Amino acid sequence: MCKGDIQRVLKDRTDDIVMYDVPKPIQSIGIAAYEASWKLFFDHNPPGPDCFSLRDIQIVAGEDVAYAFGLLIIGGGDAQCRLTLGLRRVDGAWKVTHEHHSMPILPG
């Protein structure tokens, strides 16, 4: 369940995280910019049981780097985006260093 706990969101990210997102700003560099993007998200999407769900997650990991990808369902299925995470082992713990969200452009 998405609780809107920004500190929980930031906990496993690196200080130099890079995020590419769907809404502006489409690129956030550093933990402060990453945090600002999430605050903007929570301002427009109240936390709750249908805030997020993940589907078709695949994880590939080496000794010190990994990536994961799949689908991120937002708002109980109202919006779906592709999710890619890059991770690095830092002091023995996995940390997200790169996060990428993208939405397909559907023919209208």
TrEMBL record:
Coiled-coil residue spans: none
SUPFAM superfamilies in UniProt: NTF2-like
Signal peptide positions on this chain: none
Annotated source species: Paracoccus broussonetiae subsp. drimophilus
Taxon lineage: Bacteria, Pseudomonadati, Pseudomonadota, Alphaproteobacteria, Rhodobacterales
Pfam families for this protein: SnoaL_3
Name used for this protein in its record: Nuclear transport factor 2 family protein
Lineage top rank: taxon: Bacteria
InterPro entries the record matches: NTF2-like_dom_sf, SnoaL-like
